[in-house]
Amino acid sequence: MDLEHRLLAASAIAREAGALARRRFHDRPSALAIAFKGPQDYVLASDAEVEALIRLRLHEAFPEDAFFGEEEGGALGQSGQGAWVVDPIDGTANFARGIPHYCVSLGFVRAGEALIGVIYDPAHNQLYAAARGRGATLDGEIIRVSGLGDIAQATIEAGWSTRVPLEAYVGVVARLKQAGAAVRRGGSGALALAYVAAGRMEAYVELHMNAWDALAGLVLVREAGGWVNDYLAGEGLTKGNAILACTPELAEVLGELTGVC
User: Fold this and answer.
1) For residues 63, 67, 69 and 72, what is the CA-based torsion angle, rounded to 10 degrees?
2) What distance in Å separates the CA atoms of residue 143 and residue 130, rounded to the nearest whole number?
3) Is 47 helix (H, G, I), strand (E, B) or coil?
4) What letter would DSSP give residue 259?
């Protein structure tokens, strides 16, 4: 009941936050204040606004839970009830450029285990939701990973991070393509993980991904029957880690090709 209650609340909050994000997306460019933290690292007023709404709603529903967001930070591991790890708008560069490929991501972790994942795609009004042992759904319908095991038929998204050398990313992409995979990059790692869970792609790999981007999608893929690496190993929750989420049939070969296992 504890997880079910949190899952229902997180789903409603993600929809409300996504509706706000969608309004700000359609307001652009007049209402969109764009700044940069670094090269290709966007900062939008909309991110902070959406995160503040999520923080408020979660605190109203679960005042004992901790909260950690991409924009304003917060506390991790200071609550016995667990912590919400949130990215208010994943795919910020897409959002800023008017590309409708972004999402709201809410993950819940307790005692070192990711238990709930909710990802809402405002542009397509699609809600992906999962909780430990309860399966994964898209708009209430059960979803499963594709089950494809031939890498020469697979579509794989390779996320790029400025926290690793460019050569490492290029090397991963080259090896995947040499193995026959179709490789893409959509600009929202959280939404890519949701796509893997829904069987739209076979895998997502990134050599460094922050927890607010990763946690919700990891729960979705796992509950949809997929394979995920031990992302939370070491300091994954606080400092990020490499991530690989895929069909079980591709786990071994992708581990070899990407070095993530």
Assistant:
1) 80
2) 10
3) helix
4) S
Residue 79: left if φ>0, alpha if ψ -120 to 50, beta else—which one? beta
The answer to whether 28 and 36 have CB atoms below 8 angstroms apart is: no
Are 8 and 132 in the same domain?
Answer: yes
Domain of 130, in residue numbers: 2-142
What one-letter code names the amino acid at 246?
C
User: In 28-127, which ranges are continuous DSSP H helix?
Assistant: 45-61, 92-97
Q: In this structure, are 172 and 243 located in the same domain?
A: yes
Per-residue pLDDT of the chain in tens (261 residues, 90 and over written 9)? 599 999 999 999 999 999 999 999 998 665 455 555 555 455 577 889 999 999 999 999 999 999 998 766 566 655 467 999 999 999 999 998 899 999 999 999 999 899 999 999 999 999 999 999 999 999 999 999 999 999 999 999 999 988 899 999 999 999 999 999 999 999 999 999 999 999 999 999 999 999 999 999 999 999 999 999 999 999 999 899 999 999 999 999 999 999 998
106 and 41 within one domain? yes
Is residue 56 domain-shared with residue 133, that is, in the same domain?
yes
Looking at the fold, whether 58 and 169 belong to one and the same domain comes out as no
Return phi, psi of residue 254, to 5°: -70, -35
